[in-house]
Design goal:
CATH architecture: Alpha-Beta Complex
Oligomer: single chain
Structural class: alpha/beta
Number of domains: 1
Number of strands: 7
Strand content: 15-25%
Bound molecules: 2'-deoxyinosine 5'-triphosphate, magnesium ion
CATH topology: Maf protein
Strand order of the largest sheet: 2-1-3-4-5-6-7
Length: 199
């Protein structure tokens, strides 16, 4: 059986990938299956650079086709921050602290000025391919005045979707994948990867 690895330790991302990126043709693993795999330092300045770092570190270790996601939240009133630094916004990768800092930095900013987007870059690297396959996705929304919902991860409870009158954390994994940055990027990947890959 062919194997593909998703180079993530984030259980929320792993769940989203597993729910839409699957096929009888291959088995999907993530770094949660290899807890001993060391932390990959995300030293890039862009989502694409970081996704490449993660995809190549894991591909080289396992010699298997590997997909990495690097993603983040860009808030207009904060000039695009936290952006590439979304995971480390309030220090060390702590969702609750990140959300609290976001609410505090946006204190006093009215609803119509709380526009934001989630952005995701996926890099697919494979041992027999010289070039990586790179796709991107985004979704626009508003940063809520308070958190709502228990599903999802990261900034989902604060990411409000006006058309649905729900936050990202109030959607099921399938509903989120249908509209999210990562869902859009995975849909693009689905259309391209089988023609691209050299197994
Ligand atoms: O759908 C999302 N819903 C909510 N928050 C999200 C989402 N997508 C990215 N985010 C936030 C979480 C984290 O603060 C940062 C990603 O950082 P990023 O380095 O790409 O992921 P990560 O460190 O959690 O896992 P990993 O690097 O192992 O894939 O942006
Ligand atoms: Mg990370």
């Amino acid at each position: 059986m062919k194997e593909i690895i998703i180079a993530t330790k984030n259980p929320g991302k792993a769940r989203e990938f597993k729910s839409i990126f699957n096929d009888e043709d291959f088995t999907l693993k993530t770094l949660l299956d290899f807890p001993e795999f060391p932390e990959i330092r995300e030293t890039g300045k862009t989502f694409e650079e970081n996704a490449k770092l993660k995809a190549h570190a894991v591909m080289e270790r396992f010699n298997l086709p590997t997909i990495a996601d690097d993603s983040g939240l860009q808030v207009d009133a904060l000039y695009g921050r936290p952006g590439v630094y979304s995971a480390r916004y309030a220090g060390d990768h702590n969702d609750a602290a990140n959300n609290a800092k976001l609410l505090s930095e946006l204190g006093g900013v009215p609803k119509e000025k709380r526009t934001a987007r989630f952005f995701s870059t996926l890099v697919f690297a494979s041992p027999n391919n010289d070039e990586d396959l790179v796709v991107e996705g985004e979704v626009k929304g508003l940063i809520g005045l308070f958190p709502a919902g228990d599903d999802g991860f990261g900034y989902d409870p604060l990411f409000y979707l006006p058309e649905l009158d729900k936050t990202m954390a109030q959607l099921s994994v399938d509903e989120k994948n249908a509209i999210s940055h990562r869902g859009h990027a995975i849909q693009k990947l689905e259309k391209q990867w089988q023609d691209w890959i050299k197994w």
